[in-house]
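The authors assume throughout that readers already know how a fold can be written as discrete tokens. A single example would do more here than another paragraph of explanation. An entry of this sort, consisting of the sequence and the corresponding backbone structure tokens, reads as follows:
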Amino acid sequence: MANTKNIQRIVVKVGTSTLAHPTGMLNIRHVEHLVKVLSDLKNAGKEIILVSSGSIGVGSGKLGLKQRPADIPSKQACAAIGQCELMYVYDKLFGEYNHIVSQLLLTKYIIDGGRREVNVLNTLNALLQYNAIPIINENDTVSTEEIEFGDNDTLSAIVAKIAKADLLVLLTDIDGLYDKNPAKYPEAQLIKQVDIIDDHIREIAGGRGSSLGTGGMITKIHAAEIATEAGIPMFIINGEKPDLLYQVIEGQKVGTYFPVNHQ
């Protein structure tokens, strides 16, 4: 059993591949189901911080683009459009369950430490005290680091660390980390628990994510390193099945579990 007793503050990261269809348009069924589960967990007394990707992908879909743009200014324009759409949907759906949402757009220099990091923590604490749900994304309209190099996986781990969260859960488009690429090898086996992140784990996690997103499994492994080193356990689970979050909270091993290394 995973050690998830006394879990109170949870950071949940959802990727573009879960939020949007390959067209870039919102996957309404997935978003509605996710919001319902998160609202229920909040009703149960959990503090929820949502790190949401999808602004560029959703913006591309809203503009009717056939594929994600390649140049940085176009990506930033799509992010500006998509972020409005995402927050409108989150506000509407969470509002149906009487929950208030808030938006935080962070850039790398804000979360690199120092006073700005303290300010982020203070803001998160205040929002949670007001019973609001912080929804966080990289500020893609002014920041190019995430667009060029990474994904919100790393951001979610940093947010979990800053917020002193009890748990980090990454929702993705597969069941977790496999010993080989399940898209190429039908015999691939799900790795249910990773106790040590070594070169072998990094090697099997190599590769990029969907065409709409920017990440892949390797960014999730990096997130696991940040989280577990900060004393925060992490799960990778299938974003198409948000009900798995209940099993995570109940201490069941689903997806891939990264326990805290106490050595």
